[in-house]
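ARCHIVE CARD
Drawer: 12
Card no.: 0347
Subject: one protein chain, sequence and derived structure
Cross-reference: see card 0346
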Amino acid sequence: MKNFLKLNVKTLFSLVTGICLLTLTAAVAQDQDPASQNPAQENPPVEVQGDFSEEQLITFVKANEEVMKVQMEGEKEMMQAIESENLEVDKFNQILMSRQNPDQETEASAEELAAFNKAAQKVMDLQKDLESKAQQAIESAGLDIEEYQQMMLAYQNNPDVQQRVEELMSTQDSPKENE
């Protein structure tokens, strides 16, 4: 049972960190000066740092734990927002998928579409709040957003960093902690 929990925590860690990375990257991109961006230049290769200290990685894991708490609370609020419009979460997701992929159709009544639009607006408002709370959690843990993003990229793209982070996570999950 404990291994199952660890697997779910690691899977959730990866999912939440990916979502937060995308969210925070978008937030930072909005803050950049558009005149300094070259539209002809498409996504240049990202240099991924991998030489983080143990202390930096511990701070990253702690920051990510706080971001996960924010994300989980945000998911509850989003589900409540959807359900408050008398729409099931599954139906909301089906309509959302059909809007994102025109080839995928779903049957929805006029009432369901109206409920979807209201719920989607609530979810977008909650997402803005979630982004702010995630940024605060990261900064409260002792990282700035750019450091967190760099560490997240390294976690996602550098097997050595990924292994070191997962080892730190497993030592924090175990009953007897080191140090």
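Annotation on reverse: The chain has one domain: 13-24+54-173. The two ends are 26 Å apart (CA to CA).
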